[in-house]
Amino acid sequence: MTQVFDGNFSEGCQRLLHAVGHGREAEAIATFNQDTFRPARPEHRAFIQMLIDIKAYDLASAVALKVYNEDKSELDNVISAARSELYCQRPDDAIKIASDGASALGPNPALHLLVGLAMMSVGSLDKAGSIIQAALQMKSDQIGLAYLGEVLRLMGRTDEAISCHEQCIGAGCQDAEAFLLAGNAYYDAGHIGKALAHYEKAVVLKRHYVDAHDTLNKALWEHGEHTNFLKSFDVAIERLPSLLVLRLRQAYFRILSGKLDDAAAQLEHCLSTFGPNARIYAELAGVKQQLDNGFDALPLYAKAYELDPADANMLKAYGRTLISAKQYDRASEILGECKAIDDSDQECLAFLAAANSHVNPAEAARVNDYAELVQVFELDPPGGYATQEDFNTALLRALQPHHRSETAPIDQTLAHGTQTHGMLFNKADSEIKQLENQLRRYIGQYIDHLKKVGPAEFRNRITDGFDFSGAWSVQLSDGGFHHDHVHSAGWISSVYYVEVPAELNDEDHEGWLKFGDAHFDPENEGPHRFVKPVPGRLVLFPSYMLHGTVPIKAGKRRTTVAFDVVPQ
């Protein structure tokens, strides 16, 4: 099968693209490290960007860093190395490479933009904006306006963000990323039609652009545009038949949307087309389990494990399935291997504790001390409000316009409700800012408490500061609830109750927050703790702790603000 991608690359680059396109990224990295091949100077930067677009971040980093370390005098080498580290979520390394490059080669707008993007990725929006504006003054490419627009969007300055994007695209910019970022700004402003049009343009400009496909199809689902849902993948797969990641992403969305038979058929076709592959085996195991509760998925996970024992996502799914099969000792071993790869993987910590509840109950209790680690706070009203109830009334009015979608996000644990889009605490509403300021004080108290009683998995990450990695509002309605889950991007997670239905059935824990209900474990004895929803109440807990909600009855509505905190 011939590898076909947008762009013309040399035989060596095409060889690597062929391997990664077939889902063999580790093989591609090993081949590159053993080979004398290097991308030619004219193609190197475009090649690294191609790898980033198809989410082959590890290969992008391996190629870019080797080329950079062999010749740091070439600007494109510096730019590619810094950009690959940024997408590998190593912003400090990206900043150092870009800064060292500027010191050695002289100020350059592209390097300034990369430093600005790294600052944006860690939430330093003011610094990011200043640096990107400096790059624009140095006459950066038009994409600099799109990056400035994204910073302004994240700051809640949506009108200014849209103005930047219109300037960028109006000047003739045809970069797919510019259209994706413009779509985000229109989405935040409630211009859903314009947002979808810009997302669609992004995937037309780059059929291999995975993030653009993901963003477009999530938005289509949330706004009831099911006719066009997943069609962008159909077109891209037809034009790029050798790019496995597109087929896997489409199968993933089919699973989320309940099209399990279609997903299984697609994954089976992937297996016959691309051959043995760890990701295909793992995805196929999961979907066949959903289709048939009696299906034995363990042989498929064993094949995936044999092919790639260092795939953390596969290890977690394998460990969870072993728990479902009551193979607790083996589950503990597999999940222990996953923890050795990343000891702050929140989902791994949750599953390992579930396995240890049978293998080593004392260890499980140490990690999941529900009495000490789940802390409840009753907030005092901020200045200008006589009571917290008055403040919540004003806060609810501010939150309501941000609930724009028609249904729950397709990739979240929410059922029968809506969730706000983007970083809530970057919205301009004064009430939301007041809530953020309130929350910071209680988070500090919680960290001080866990310095004394928290397990090492929590305490080892404590630093001198913290920040929010995400914040959003959720409205449950018509029997809404959250499936049991963890927050993989957090360290501390939360729920703050803004609006709670009257006359909840407390005997049945209607709408209550529950912890430790490991539903995938047939011998699970949870939930191990319930917390009643009360307006003005804040609940904080480690992000690795399994939690969900008991459904509320139809006709009732519950509004919350939730957030994740990470060390700074």
CATH architecture of the largest domain, by name, is Alpha Horseshoe
| Average residue-wise pLDDT | 94
* Count of domain modules: 2
Would you count the extended β strands for me? 9
CATH H-level name of the largest domain... which superfamily? Tetratricopeptide repeat domain
Unreliable stretches: none
Shape assignment: globular
CATH level 1 class label of the largest domain: Mainly Alpha
Beta-strand fraction estimate: 5-15%
Radius of gyration: 24 Å
**What summary fits the major beta sheet?**
6 strands, antiparallel
Compute the number of helices. Answer: 26
What topology does this entry show?
Blueprint: H1 11-21, H2 25-34, H3 41-53, H4 57-70, H5 75-87, H6 91-105, H7 109-121, H8 125-137, H9 143-154, H10 158-170, H11 176-188, H12 192-205, H13 210-222, H14 231-239, H15 244-256, H16 260-274, H17 278-291, H18 298-307, H19 312-324, H20 328-341, H21 346-359, H22 361-367, H23 370-373, E1 375-378, H24 388-399, E2 414-419, H25 430-453, H26 456-459, E3 466-482, E4 492-499, E5 513-515, E6 529-531, E7 537-542, E8 547-549, E9 557-567
Antiparallel strand pairs: 1-7, 2-3, 3-9, 4-7, 4-9, 5-6, 5-8
